[in-house]
Amino acid sequence: MPKQLPLQFEFQSNQSFNTFYPGDNTELINHLKNIFINNEQQIFLWGEVASGKTHLLQAISQESKQQHKSNFYFSFDNNLLPDIEILTGLESFDIVCFDNIERIASNIEWEHAFFNFFNRHRDNNKQLVLSANCPPKYLPFQLPDLKTRMAWGLTLKITPLTDEQQLNALIYKANDLGFEIPVKVGKFLISHYARDIPSIWILLNKIDQATLAAKRKLTIPFLKQIMNEQEQNEAR
Fold first, then answer.
1. Residue at a domain's end among 98, 122, 157
2. Contact present, 130 and 44 (Cβ < 8 Å)
């Protein structure tokens, strides 16, 4: 029997297609939304760090639940790979999503194990979605046949958000959380406290909690107060 996965590998219900700000990726997102209609056997999704790959793989997993498909999602850690036994039985899942596939590169045991899983899963005519920080041809795999298989399906690139789109994404995400960020406050937040999307999302959750607790609208002075209190708490 396959080992039970730790809780941190469960799906994140807030990471759906509806909560993803598309920017210039509308066509890509529409394609992923229709993954079961188009019946793509393999999709390789790549983009820069913090471009939204994890969110989109989680969204596919959510969609698979709604379609009553058996599904599996896993994100490879940069420092610690799991036991290869995690692959046992996955060939029978309708759709499998592996996030950060580049992190198994140069681990020959994992490369061989994944190669064998890949072949079994494909022979069963199941669907596979992979993400990485580079196109398939640049993956530093030691096993040539595995590297070749990475490019067998459809390859999609996530287009990074422009500065203006990052601001729009910030406002979009805040609205999803249930509070409003005025444009001036959003610009101040991005220019003074966060330069990348993941740190912005973390700050948004903290701001959401602070505005709820204080029952106040978000202004620049209030934002400064929230961030000062946050810095003091982290310094303790």
1. 157
2. yes
Radius of gyration in angstroms for the set of CA atoms belonging to the chain, rounded to a whole number: 20
* Last-in-domain residue among 133, 157, 181: 157
Same domain, 153 and 167: no
Residues 6+ apart with CB under 8 A from 182: 218, 219
pLDDT along the chain (236 residues), means of 10: 38 78 96 93 94 94 93 90 96 97 96 98 98 96 97 96 91 90 92 78 87 90 88 72
Q: Which whole-number Å values give the CA distances from 106 to 83, 134, 144, in the listed order?
A: 15, 16, 12
pLDDT tens-digit series, residues 74-99: 999 877 899 999 999 999 999 999 99
List all residues 6 or more positions away from 189 whose beta carbon is below 8 Å from its beta carbon: 170, 181, 200, 203, 223
- Asked if 158 contacts 53 with a C-beta cutoff of 8 angstroms, the reply is yes
Q: What is the pTM of this model?
A: 0.86
Does residue 39 form part of some domain?
yes
For residue 142, give its domain range: 7-157
DSSP assigned state of 78: S
Residue 101 and residue 71 in contact, taking contact as beta carbons nearer than 8 Å: no
